[in-house]
Amino acid sequence: MSERLLTLPNVLSILRLAGVPVFLWAIVSRHDGLALIVLALSGITDYADGKIARTFHMESRLGQFLDPIADRLYILSTLIGLAWREIIPLWFVVALLAREAVMLVMLLYLRKRGQIGLPVHFVGKAATFNLLYAFPLLLLAHRGDVLGELARPIGWGLAWWGLVLYWFAAILYAIQAQFVLSRTPHRAGAPRAR
Known PROSITE patterns for this protein (predicted)? Predict the structure, then answer.
């Protein structure tokens, strides 16, 4: 694990983070072309930063920190924008945000017991992949032409898979957390992580 800060994967993650407010402004102000470009670039750089980091041994603690934050910010900003535009229903937003709340409570509990976190599951990455590719298609589906009609079933298919996998990943994380906690019992008076 590298301690270097200035690596290509980290630069890509920082660029993804910088694109979040641009995307949110674009989607809320109905600049759909720009929103689609930013979202597509986010998906491409999300794949590229992980691939480059693994292939060229550039994995770093900063990258492990930035990548999930960028993913969650894109998902959150997209949910806000698409719900604001009434492209996705409110229940879908609530279902995804409820999962995030469950994960936050779980991670806070783990931290209280002295555990820093849990490794990322492939299922969680697959869920994020599905959601990040579903959202631009759902935005395209809002168009009233043939392209919109083609994008709608694919976008909703990916969205449903993303939602199901997101919750399935949360269950896997809960099982993993229980296993980790059972192997490292909390001792009375032991220092806790802050």
Answer: CDP_ALCOHOL_P_TRANSF (PS00379)
By the 8 A CB rule, do 100 and 48 touch?
Answer: no
Bridge partners of 2, per DSSP, are: 60
Quick one: angle between helices 122-141 and 146-183, nearest 10? 160
* Dist. CA 127–CA 92, nearest whole Å: 14
Q: Which two tokens stand for residue 94?
A: 């609530």
pLDDT class of 127 with cuts at 50, 70, 90? very high
Instruction: With CA atoms as reference, report the closest residue to 28 among 82, 67, 75, 66.
Output: 82
pLDDT, tens digit (0-9, with 9 covering 90-100), for 129-139: 899 889 989 99
For residue 75, give the nearest of 127, 141, 7, 18 by alpha carbon. 127
- Report the C-alpha gap between 90 and 1 in whole angstroms: 40
* Phi, psi (deg, nearest 5) at residue 87: -90, -30
